Amino acid sequence: MYRVLITDNLSPAGLKILKETPGIEVDLRKGLTPDEVRVALHDADGIIIRSETKLTPEILKDQPRLKAIVRAGVGTDNINLPAATREGIVVMNTPAGNTTSTAEHTIAMMMALSRNIAPAASKLRDGVWDRKSFTGTQLAGKTIAIVGLGRIGLAVARRAIGLEMKILGFDPFMSVERAAEQGIELYRDIDEMITKCDYLTVHTPLSPETTNLIGAERLAKMKKGVRIINCARGGIINEAELAQAIESGHIGGAALDVFVKEPTPPDNPLLKLPQVLCTPHLAASTDEAQELVAVEAAEIMAGFLVRHEVRHAVNMAPISSAEMADMRIYLDLGLRLGVVLSQLNKSGVRSAKLTFRGEAATKKTKLISNAFAAGLLSSALAENVNIVNAEMLAHERGIQITESLSSEVSDFSTMISATVYTDEGECSVAGTIFGRQFLRLVRVNQFHLDAYLDGTLLLYRHIDRPGVIGTIGTACGQHNVNIAHMAVGRERNEPGGEALAILNLDNEPSAEALAAVQANPAVTSVQLLRLPKAGNPLPWLTTQSV
Length: 546
Fold this sequence. Notes:
Rossmann fold
């Protein structure tokens, strides 16, 4: 049974999905203190939060059971992503659920700002009929600049086109052709774009790169009288410098739904300015959006725990349940090759290279590389290493992992080769897949062979001469070690030279058995490798039961 902790308000529709999913238990506890959240997470496989709960490094540290965080909403600034990644926790959000509501709120704020709706309504409520003081500006014919053309930015653009506005857009990832299809004039230079607009709206996540994206320097470059809208995240626009620009008369006004500190303190200078329209983070506060994000969050969490799919992840590559079913065997192969190299190699790893050939090159190789890194680091680190945090942990230790892809098929229809480079040289292995479930180790350094890639493996290098294999088998038998399979590879496939043998054993040999093998005068080295049993689930997909 998987336990999902919910610490913020979640629509009944979302709770219903979780409660009706077989194998999931819902632990609904709102209003917890940070210490109480940390303790509650010890018994949780996943947590769903909104904006109230803050998941700090202190809360996320040493949570071995926790595998997934789902933010019911777009922004993840209340989750410490580096800490979650380091702990191997997948972080996912719900980018689609509040798209329409946020886009509509942005347009509503822009229209209300342009037509002075809030101050006019307030004046009329006070009994004053004043038409002259609240002359507004129409939107038709004006130019709006949109920073960030994701789902919400594009939804705002479509609505602004309906208002007969000219649309400018800044996004480093959107193609010019795609922008043109949406009626957007695309800019790669934000400073060039902001000089040409009457309205500016921001729709980016809050990150180190976007914090104070719009500050005094850029505000000064804009046309006099421009109006600013922020329904994304507080901090993208520098609040103090925006207030100064409005007070100076250069900026015509602003409509803000989000703030650096929420609830924003009463002494925030923006709240005192008549040219500023403020709402208390209402962009996603519609009945429809609340239900949609709750449903999406519940479906994402259930999909992860039950079907091992990763949707809308912000700290790893997403993967659907169908892709996971297809990728599982490749992830397992990558993991086991990493485990083999971690045990074969006895010196510090400086870098690693993976080469994908045939079918393997058509898969999500980044995930396979992460699985390999998890295997490579697993025996060296006490930390929980998985496909979420393996890349970060390798990078922290100065290990660079590179990839090479080739669609060419050589001896096998699919093959993954892995090489680690150390202070003492390099070591490489290669593996393949037979059918859809059988993993094989087909090369160790220069030796080509065919060994099972599971369980207990006894590797010994020897001089290729008659009788060696027989004496090794006898030694194993004398010490009650059963040999399930044997593979031998010869250097340059020539008799009389150096060879490598791999024995797949049914039970682990004793120290006396290993000594007996080593005692053979033809044997030059002996090493024992321990791998997961055949068919074992991937370690990061297993979850502690309630």
